[in-house]
Amino acid sequence: MVQSHQVTVEGLEKLNEELKKLRTVDRQVTVKRMAAARELGDLSENADYHDAREQLAFIEGRIQELEQTIKHAQVVTAKAGGSEVIQIGSKVVLQMDKQSVSYELVGANEGDPAAGKLSMESPVGSALIGRKAKEQVSVATPGGTIQYIITSVA
User: What pTM value is reported for the model?
Assistant: First the structure.
């Protein structure tokens, strides 16, 4: 059974941009690098050739991974006018002690807490799914349990 990947519209655009760059830029640069290294002669001791070959294998693997992710992507958007229930695409404000922090809940591959994007599969993200404003949420972390109060959902 093929697993679908939930992503936001923005997340799908980023995946498509990465795929396009890998196909049109990175792959060609690496192939040219391999060709230049091949011209140097003995391939058995040519570190640049072997490095370029490994890089090309990585690029090809990433292209396949992105193609599968995009093919099976399930684009999820927050409901128009917002929703009381936290879901992918929701923007939430959390309070911990006297500190407030805002996040947008995004797909698993889109998480970037420093940019305010919280993966729905992260400990905090998964604890928030299905919750509503004014609820208290406990999240187990390696440093201990953290208590959050959901102050708003948009």
Answer: 0.73
